[in-house]
């Protein structure tokens, strides 16, 4: 049996336990359902337009970092239209894994 076959056999079992371990370890940090966390994000897109935005600042009241918030934050940023060489600011709130607010360019080095 090769390595890939072994991975395929155990993948679903490992995924189940991974979720349980994450909840057990960091569950107390998970965003609360229906709670509105007001906050701000500032991130930059490098001059070469890499698909890896750099988060410069991120703070939401009473919300600690967690794997769930990290994933939601990066999913939000990657879904935005952006231009290389710009710094963006999001002002708004985070509720039920959604960001609601305004996103503005605060610095455009192309102009």
Brief write-up:
This protein has 111 residues and is an alpha+beta fold.
Topology:
Layout: H1 3-26, E1 37-45, E2 54-60, H2 67-79, E3 86-95, E4 98-108
Antiparallel strand pairs: 1-2, 1-3, 3-4
Tell me what the structure shows.
With 111 residues, the chain is of the alpha+beta class. It has 2 domains: 1-28, no CATH class; 31-108, no CATH class. The chain is built from 2 helices and 4 strands. It has helices spanning 3-26, 67-79; strands at residues 37-45, 54-60, 86-95, 98-108. Strand 3 and strand 4 (98-108) form a beta hairpin. The longest helix is centred in the first third of the chain and has 24 residues, at 3-26.
Biggest sheet record: 4 strands, antiparallel
Supply Rg. Answer: 18 Å
Order of helices and strands: HEEHEE
> Which class do the helix and strand fractions yield?
alpha+beta
Q: Total helix count?
A: 2
Distinctive features:
single chain, 111 residues, alpha+beta, 2 domains, four-stranded antiparallel β-sheet, 2 helices, 4 strands, 33% strand, flat
């Amino acid at each position: 049996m090769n390595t890939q076959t072994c991975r395929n056999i155990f993948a679903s079992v490992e995924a189940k336990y991974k979720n349980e371990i994450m909840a057990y370890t960091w569950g107390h940090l998970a965003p609360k359902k229906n709670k509105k966390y007001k906050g701000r994000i500032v991130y930059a897109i490098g001059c070469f337009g890499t698909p890896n935005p750099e988060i410069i600042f991120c703070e939401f009241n009473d919300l600690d970092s967690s794997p769930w918030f990290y994933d939601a934050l990066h999913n939000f940023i990657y879904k935005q239209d952006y231009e290389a060489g710009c710094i963006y600011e999001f002002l708004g709130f985070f509720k039920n894994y959604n960001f609601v607010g305004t996103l503005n360019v605060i610095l455009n080095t192309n102009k």
